[in-house]
Amino acid sequence: MDFQKDIRPQQRFDNFKKSYQLLEKYSSLELTSEIEKAGLIQFFEITFDLALKVLKDYLEAQGYIVKSPRETIKQAYQIEVIDDGHVWIEALSSRNLTTHTYDEQFTEKFVQDIQQVYFPLFKSLYEKLLEEY
Known about the structure:
Blueprint: H1 8-27, H2 34-61, H3 69-78, H4 85-98, H5 104-130
């Protein structure tokens, strides 16, 4: 893939990489305080948003036009850049809820989902894209 014309995709990937590494560092820890859980959720939000931007850049470089996060996920799944498209869609729904909801039960479940379900999605994407950038 040739991103030489535009430096922004590389910069976005670098930001995704930094955010992914922070999420990786903290997602394996046992989080006990509200602030730790809130921090992990914040790392998820940033990593997820950057993952979508990186995917959009990747797809556009391949000649695809995607207008929304949902379209980005669907197209990336169709061309096998990501696995588990339905789980990515669930992550998108959860991401959208985080900005509008604060509920202790939601937070507990969401932290578990980040650690056990969503982090592996980012890991797979990171490993695939590392070869491209």
